[in-house]
Write a structure and sequence with these properties.
The structure is a single chain. Helix content is 22%, strand content 20%. With 183 residues, it is of the alpha+beta class. It is built from 6 helices and 7 strands. It has a single domain, classed as Alpha-Beta Complex (Quinone Oxidoreductase, Chain A, domain 1), CATH 3.90.180.10. Strand 1 and strand 2 (12-16) form a beta hairpin. The longest helix has 12 residues, at 150-161. The chain binds zinc ion (2 copies). The site of one zinc ion has 6 residues, from loops. One zinc ion binds at residues 89-90, 92-93, 95-96, 104-105, 107.
Length: 183
């Protein structure tokens, strides 16, 4: 298959690479239909991400069609159209249970970083049941690819850096003289 491979700072090429195969029972192989070039990929290419080693297929966003699933994958089957999360998550470790998927002990941001990514004809997705999302029939896949990373990252940065939460909003809307029933 064709794949965009990082060969060290400032070096990349469209190479011929083997189609990925299942490495764990929880994996899926996805045929890519759309992917992106993220700002993070440009950082890797500039040499800003030393944890991404030369030889890595880049890309962590995209949509595609499931080709094959491991024996432990129960939510997806061959032929399903899926959105790929830039964050792989097992759904079971302590971090995943607390909703901190990017800290997943066997996942997080690994696609196009620690393992081969989505800027290729096929990609292997670990923890497929909890790292892929089904695409409804007739959905605009070109718009949906923005949900792999771009929209959620913007949302997270705005919400976290803004210190905004339902509780914070509630507290700020309560007149000071009432105090807080929880304090
Ligand atoms: Zn990205
Ligand atoms: Zn996890």
């Amino acid at each position: 298959m064709k794949a965009l491979v990082y060969h060290g700072p400032g070096k990349k090429s469209l190479d011929e690479r083997p189609v990925p195969t299942l490495a764990a029972a929880t994996d899926a192989i996805v045929k890519m239909t759309r992917t992106t070039i993220c700002g993070t990929d440009l950082h890797i290419l500039k040499g800003d991400v030393p944890s991404c080693e030369p030889g890595r297929i880049l890309g962590h966003e995209g949509v595609g069609i499931v080709q094959q699933v491991g024996s432990a994958v129960s939510s997806f089957k061959s032929g399903d159209r899926v959105l790929i999360s830039c964050i792989s998550s097992c759904g079971k470790c302590d971090y995943c249970r607390r909703g901190m998927y990017s800290h997943c002990t066997t996942g997080g941001w690994i696609l196009g970083h620690k393992i081969d990514g989505t800027q290729a004809e096929y990609v292997r997705i670990p923890h497929a049941d909890t790292s892929l999302y089904p695409i409804p029939a007739g959905a605009d896949e070109e718009a949906l690819v923005m949900l792999s990373d771009i929209l959620p990252t913007g949302f997270e940065c705005g919400v976290l850096n803004g210190g905004y939460s339902p509780a914070a909003r509630w507290q700020s809307s309560v007149p000071d003289r009432l105090g807080s029933p929880c304090s």
